[in-house]
Specification:
Blueprint: E1 3-16, H1 26-34, E2 42-48, E3 52-56, E4 67-79, E5 82-89, E6 100-108, H2 109-115, E7 117-123, E8 137-146, H3 147-150, H4 198-208, E9 212-217, H5 241-250, E10 254-260, H6 277-283, E11 289-294
Length: 299
């Protein structure tokens, strides 16, 4: 294995000549017919090794010369021997046929580290990296900068929002506790330490918001409440997370929620981790809450 540690930039402009019918096997031709396309509906994926997918492009309908224009900048730290691009044709109906693999382009990690950039129009191969027939070509540009060459800038690159000053960060030792449940602590300056109640204070901060509520996390469950006892303001109503977010949107706040899109969850199946991502899509549909699923891999 080779340690790939640093900044990885990948650009894929498109592909050329993906469906040369004279070079395709009978099995591939039958599968393509089952897809009911004049040509094919291609997309591509990029994986670190054979498992960890970092890019999945959108699909271009009915063409053998797709233009994707996909660019990604990534921070990576992986022990991996190769980076694998795969071009596939999407099935029109998964009940009739699975997606058809059209070809691969495999980059050895050590070659990329030494070259720092690999750019051009490259031939697609089989899954062993052999060019045994015309599978089409991929137009790519890959750049790698090692962590040693990136410098020591503490700012995290490629974030949604720029760094800002004047923020307040509150650290909590407990998600929740009841009054007088925790020991009394006197700080070195003689002042009593006030144990915070994370869930209550977050709930109240959302309730008091006037302009915006931004929340992101691994899972957002609309049906439970942050509260374990009455809210700080003393009211008797304990809203669920979903009710709270919808209320703030109705009051005019801009409510943006970003949660993990679990790969195995669907509209009919909860997935392995039961993160409620698909449930939330339905729950917040046609409300003022802007809810988005974002995968750990680039879907």
């Amino acid at each position: 294995m080779v340690l790939l540690h640093g900044g990885l930039s990948i650009s894929v402009q498109g592909a050329l000549g993906l469906w040369n019918v004279n070079e395709r096997s009978l099995k591939e031709k039958v599968k393509q017919k089952a897809m009911m396309s004049t040509y094919i509906d291609p997309y591509f994926t990029c994986k670190l090794g054979k498992i960890k997918r970092i890019i999945k492009s959108h699909t271009i309908d009915d063409t053998q010369d797709p233009v994707w224009d996909v660019s990604r900048d990534l921070l990576v730290c992986e022990d991996v021997d190769q980076i694998v691009f795969e071009v596939l044709a999407q099935a029109k109906d998964s009940r009739i046929s699975s997606d058809l693999s059209l070809g691969y382009y495999i980059v050895k990690t050590q070659d990329l580290i030494e070259a720092k950039e690999i750019k051009g129009t490259v031939a697609l191969t089989d899954d062993d990296g052999k060019v045994n027939k015309d599978r089409g070509k991929l137009i790519i540009d890959m750049k790698f900068q090692s962590v040693a060459d990136m410098g020591s800038d503490p700012e995290v690159p490629w974030c949604y929002f720029p760094p800002r000053r004047g923020n307040k960060v509150t650290l909590y030792g407990d998600a929740h506790h009841f009054d007088n449940e925790l020991p009394k602590i006197i700080k070195s300056n003689g002042v009593k330490y006030e144990h915070g109640k994370a869930w209550q204070e977050i709930y109240q901060a959302i309730m008091d918001a006037k302009h915006l509520v931004y929340a992101c996390g691994w899972s957002i469950f609309a049906d439970i409440s942050l509260l374990r006892e009455k809210p700080i303001d003393g009211s008797d109503k304990m809203l669920t997370n979903g009710e709270l977010f919808k209320l703030k949107a109705e009051q005019g706040c801009r409510v943006l929620l970003m949660a993990w899109d679990e790969l195995l969850s669907t509209s009919t199946r909860a997935g392995l981790m039961a993160t409620h991502d698909e449930e939330n899509v339905k729950y917040f549909e046609k409300t003022g809450v802007n809810y988005r699923k974002v995968g750990r891999v680039d879907d």
